[in-house]
Amino acid sequence: RDASSVDWKPALRAALLLAVPAGLLTSGVSPLGALGLLWMAIAAAWAVTLYMRSQKPAWITLGAGARVGLVTGLLAGWLAFAISGGTLFVQRFLLHQSSQMDAQWKYSTDASYQASLQTMQQWSSWLTAEDMAKLQVNQAGIHATMLTPEGQAGNVTLGLIFRLVFLLLFAAAGGALGARFLARVSKPEV
To answer: Among residues 75, 70, 84, 80, which one has the least CA distance to residue 170?
Structure first.
């Protein structure tokens, strides 16, 4: 058997087995926070280990390990995405917490806007008055857009997508590391 190929039936079984807890632990409701990325890498490496137990000969390339890890990350990432999005939906519409969520969003958006204005004031010595006025108008427009429901929804969605991308990167890296730790030195042929 080619070590760079993946027998996907047992690989998917191992990936799914670890993707569910990884998805739960990396979602927005998990108490792990940023440690969820580490857990994702561990889960992907563990999936490669479980997959390799069923393989004869038990050897895998880094690329094949990364692919098994990536599939684990895809399954876990989409589960985490669904849980996080579902939680936000329940909080906003079923638990009627929209006013608290909107107030928190307005507070953080206003703080970000004020910080950007302060940064622009520091740049004022390097910019012309016309350029400074354009920047201020631009920042005010971005601030106004971010305060709309569409701006808030877009920002939350982009945040979830960025989280998903990082989960996928850590999963692929974890799968490759799992394959690396399982790698056996091949004996030279005589």
So the answer is: 70
The CA distances from residue 141 to 5, 107, 119, 138, 146, in Å, are: 52, 17, 17, 5, 9
Instruction: Classify 69 as helix, strand or coil.
Output: helix
What is the token pair recorded at 132? 């400074």
Cβ-count burial 28-59 (b if 16+ within 10 Å, e if not): bebeeeeebbebbbbbbbbbbbbbbeebeeee
Q: DSSP assignment, residue 184?
A: -
Helices (H), 54-148: 62-89, 98-123, 129-146
The whole model's pTM is what?
0.80
Contacts of 124 (CB under 8 A, 6+ apart): 132
Strands (E), 24-73: none
CB 64, CB 179: distance < 8 Å = yes
User: With contact defined as beta carbons under 8 Å apart, do 81 and 29 qualify?
Assistant: no
pLDDT tens profile 73-96: 999 999 999 999 999 999 999 999
